[in-house]
Model the fold of this input.
Amino acid sequence: MSALIATFALTAVVIWAYLIAAHGKFWLSRPELAPVSSVRGPRVDIVVPARDEAQSIEPVIASLLAQDYGAGSPGAFAVTLVDDNSTDGTAERAGSAANLNIVRGAPKPAGWVGKMWALEQGIAAGDAPLILLTDADILHEPRHLSTLVACLERAKLDMVSEMVHLNCSSLAERALVPAFVYFFQMLYPFAKVNDARSSVAAAAGGTVLIRREALERIGGIGAIKGALIDDVSLAKAVKQRNGAIFLGHSVLAFSIRPYPAFVDIWRMIARTAFTQLRHSAWLLLGTLIGLSLVWLAPLAAALFGHGWVRMCGLVACALALVSYLPTLARYRRSFAWAIALPLIALFYMAATVGSAVDAWSGVGARWKSRSY
Done:
């Protein structure tokens, strides 16, 4: 047993040394775009897919209509809300405006994920050179669209995406949401996403600004019509065709979707975790072994090891905890939450196993009264 712990401890400290020094500096929780006001640029179609979002849609649409893009000139941007067969009066709650277009969604064809079909209809309703895809639970400050377009045009990019600031009010959110962002950064280091020489590609679906020509180059939204993890799939498709993409953190967009209980976050993770692993039992096993080496082995070595083994465990634990501090700072959470990171990681591991069990039992992913 002591030899096994020693092996794990040494492996863990090597892994953490690599993660800190050579994994795209994911732990810095950067970059973020500096806000820009009243940019003038190409016309923008803003597409918002919505299904049973009556509680949030009114302030979301209002925040989009209040964008300062184009210095408020008529025709600089238009908002298209695609009502995906809502049963709660979502479209009626959206309000009305000269540059607001409401599309009543047609029945979903076979092979399409609901959100992708809604986006397909919303994109087809406009013809602007730029398209902003955003969710029905995201509030946007007035400078947000100007900031996104300025980044896209200045760097001659094909797509700009931002991780919006997630809701972090309930106990479950305070415990688990910063870790969700942290793990996403670890899985897709933003610096590597933004590096044209790297094959790593990712996006955050709450905010995706893309050139229409880049979308057409990959075959339109239909190219990823069955994707549950649509944002990452879109980024991969764009980058694989030599598209230049950017992923950062937003200080101008905020999710208002609540996750009041731990079970709500469990369901959010379980909905796509096994899909991320391509429904492979071997990838699931490898992931669990890898996560155990990263999160559990250092703790075991620090608690039960002796001499250099304990020292390796303590060093790995220290590197892990320190790497979490910038993300906690971004969410204005106490640094004391870093101590709970191994337990939080265990929760995410369990939810990933739960995702696999759901798939194997035939339950599958479920969202907005639809099963996949």
